[in-house]
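Quiz preparation item.
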C-alpha cells in the first residue's frame, strides 16, 4: 500500500504502537507528523526516520489539556493544507483497582484516552470536510470492549472511543470520511513491560497464540483502515488480540 502525497498525523507517535504506525506510514510514502508530549523521544523518531529518508516531523502536544491540543492543531494546519489521515493512538493508564483510583488519576486517564481524541479530531475535522475526504483511525483497546480488571477507568475511556468512532462515522460519511477503530489486545510495548511479571504471564496463558502482539501488527491494521482498501468500511471495530477476545 502506498500513501504518496498523503499527510498523516499520529498521536502517541514517539513510542510503542504509535511509533510503529508512524514508521509504517512513512515507509509507504506518507508525510507523517509524530505528535507526542515527549520531545526527546519525538526527536529520536525524527532522527531515525531521517536515516531512511522518511518524511517525519515532530509536533509537541499535551492531550491532557484541550488548549494545548487546539494550539497544536492550529500550528499543523498553518504548516499543511490538510490532514488526510488522523490516527488517535495515544493512551495512558496505571494498574489499580477502581475503588483505589484518586480523582485526579481518573480525570487524567479520561482526558488523555478520550477527551484528547475528541478535541484533536474536532480541531482537524473541518479541513477534512472541506477536502471532501479523509481517514480517521482511533486506537481503543479490548479493555473497552470486554472490560479489564484493574483498568476500569481506562476501559470506560476506551469504551467511549469506540462509541465516538461509531457515532462520528455516521455524521461524516456524507463527506466521504471514514472513521474506524482498532482494539489491540496485550501488545509488547513499554506500557506492557511495566506491568507485573505475574500479570504478563497470565495474559500469555490466556492468549491462544501464546504471545503478545508486536506493535507492527497493530500498525498493519491501522494502515489497512487508512488505505483505499477500506474505502467502503466505516464505523467498524477490529480486535487485534491473538484470539484473546472472540466476542464482546
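Solution:
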Amino acid at each position: 500500500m502506498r500513501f504518496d502525497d498523503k499527510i498523516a498525523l499520529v498521536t502517541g507517535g514517539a513510542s510503542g504502537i504509535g511509533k510503529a504506525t508512524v514508521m509504517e506510514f512513512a515507509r509507504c510514502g506518507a508525510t507523517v507528523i509524530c505528535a507526542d508530549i515527549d520531545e526527546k523521544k519525538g526527536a529520536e523518531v525524527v532522527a531515525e526516520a531521517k536515516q531512511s529518508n522518511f518524511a517525519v516531523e515532530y509536533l509537541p502536544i499535551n492531550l491532557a489539556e484541550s488548549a494545548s491540543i487546539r494550539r497544536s492543531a492550529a500550528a499543523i494546519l498553518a504548516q499543511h493544507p490538510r490532514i488526510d489521515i488522523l490516527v488517535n493512538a495515544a493512551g495512558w493508564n496505571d494498574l489499580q483497582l477502581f475503588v483505589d483510583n484518586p480523582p485526579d488519576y481518573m480525570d487524567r486517564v479520561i482526558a488523555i484516552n478520550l477527551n484528547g481524541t475528541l478535541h484533536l479530531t474536532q480541531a482537524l475535522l473541518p479541513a477534512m470536510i472541506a477536502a471532501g475526504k479523509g481517514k480517521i483511525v482511533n486506537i481503543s483497546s479490548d479493555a473497552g470492549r470486554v472490560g479489564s480488571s484493574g483498568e476500569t477507568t481506562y476501559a470506560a475511556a476506551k469504551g467511549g472511543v469506540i462509541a465516538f468512532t461509531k457515532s462520528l462515522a455516521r455524521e461524516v460519511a456524507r463527506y466521504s470520511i471514514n472513521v474506524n477503530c482498532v482494539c489491540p489486545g496485550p501488545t509488547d510495548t513499554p506500557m506492557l513491560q511495566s506491568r507485573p511479571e505475574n500479570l504478563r504471564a497470565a495474559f500469555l496463558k490466556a492468549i491462544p497464540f501464546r504471545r503478545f502482539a508486536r506493535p507492527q501488527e497493530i500498525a498493519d491494521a491501522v494502515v489497512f483502515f487508512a488505505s483505499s482498501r477500506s474505502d467502503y468500511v466505516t464505523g467498524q471495530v477490529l480486535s487485534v488480540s491473538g484470539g484473546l477476545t472472540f466476542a464482546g
